[in-house]
Design brief:
Layout: H1 6-37, H2 40-74, E1 78-79, E2 98-100, E3 103-107, E4 116-120, E5 125-129, H3 135-145, E6 147-148
Antiparallel strand pairs: 1-2, 2-3, 3-4, 4-5, 5-6
Helix pairs in contact: 1-2
Length: 172
Amino acid sequence: MVYVSARALEEELRHLEEELAAARNLEHSTAERHAEEGSKETEAVLEARKIQAEHLEAEREGLVAELRRRAVAEAGWEHDDAWGAGPDGAPVRSAGCGRAGKLRIGPHLLLPERGYLLHDRSEGTVAWVRGVPSPSRASEILAEHGVEWEGELLSHTLSPVPEGAEGHYKGR
């Protein structure tokens, strides 16, 4: 496999997102046309548009996952495969999950496009950051901005750490 720079991946992602938006617009207009006409031809075109958009979405998800994986690795985190492998041998955790001692980082559970969650297992605290800090900076962020983990998917009191307090690598 040929190495592709993060900048090239980000550019490819930007173009892919534009293509995906156009494909979703075509799908929407085709759905409206099919609702009006109800013919087998418009149904077939609609199905083709849906398949095209799904393929573009899957490709987009792959690029985002690779960018997350790289951001976490470049910031000094180890890959986190704490939950082992799934039935097909693939890691259970999503790309962009990392660990450093008692600390964990991973994409935000409910809003993965909006940043990452830091988790200190020994202190039981979490913090929401927009990008990927180094493990040492993550420890500082958790000490300063972490909130108590409530045992739910997310604390309802959790809000993003102020941007100036993060000091992180850019990550998607």
